[in-house]
Amino acid sequence: xxxxxxxxxxxxxxxxxxxxxxxxxxxxxxxxxxxxxxxxxxxxxxxxxxxxxxxxxxxxxxxxxxxxxxxxxxxxxxxxxxxxxxxxxxxxxxxxxxxxxxxxxxxxxxxxxxxxxxxxxxxxxxxxxxxxxxxxxxxxxxxxxxxxxxxxxxxxxxxxxxxxxxxxxxxxxxxxxxxxxxxxxxxxxxxxxxxxxxxxxxxxxxxxxxxxxxxxxxxxxxxxxxxxxxxxxxxxxxxxxxxxxxxxxxxxxxxxxxxxxxxxxxxxxxxxxxxxxxxxxxxxxxxxxxxx
Length: 292
Prior knowledge:
Layout: H1 2-32, H2 39-57, H3 62-88, H4 95-117, E1 122-123, H5 128-131, E2 133-136, E3 139-142, H6 143-165, H7 167-184, H8 190-215, E4 217-218, H9 222-237, H10 242-262, H11 267-281
Antiparallel strand pairs: 1-4, 2-3
Helix pairs in contact: 1-6, 1-7, 1-8, 1-9, 1-10, 2-3, 2-4, 2-8, 2-9, 3-8, 6-7, 6-8, 9-10, 9-11, 10-11
């Protein structure tokens, strides 16, 4: 029983990381129709920059860790905004070029990270509490899972409030439903595009810092590894649906953890099979809008 409970909670923690990446992907595609294959770069950058900040302020202190989270999120947001302004904005409605540019940026990002920080993974540390465990129902659960779950829940709540109760949130939701109509009403959605990219980049950068604590290392390929599962979560949840991304993240991560333990490490296969089943039965995703 304790093993099952441990797998469930660690699955929630892994799902929280997936959601931090998938929420930005879902918003970006839902509003802008952009499949951003460079999203993993924002995550890896946040992880590396956050670790550099923590090293200077003290990686074992909460001051260093909280500063790493803040700077990692800001770095992800800044690079994401620049990506939208310089590379994506000239290519709207040119989907093949968007894919090529974002894939190329993803490859360039990995090469730059390897050139600056090296090709080997960097083993990191954090506050003593993060490295410890908490015993619940006989299971010793790594504390990093609790923080990841709390941050993901806070992000979900913040995004829901932003989308429902702010002017830009209203524009974004309307743009997801019908971008042509929003443009016809005389609303300049380009600012919303940049804002959405920035939000997605901030969430990815924050996810990078938390992922580095979850896995206890930072590497140039960390973002791309999580990006694969984030795309699976985004499609299963429904493109443009934040709630769908949250639900799908848990539906992917928990079975993945259980399968890795009980089915000889076939968790990744379970995630891919779940994607295939959803695409066959409900191509728009669990909470995606049906095509007119």
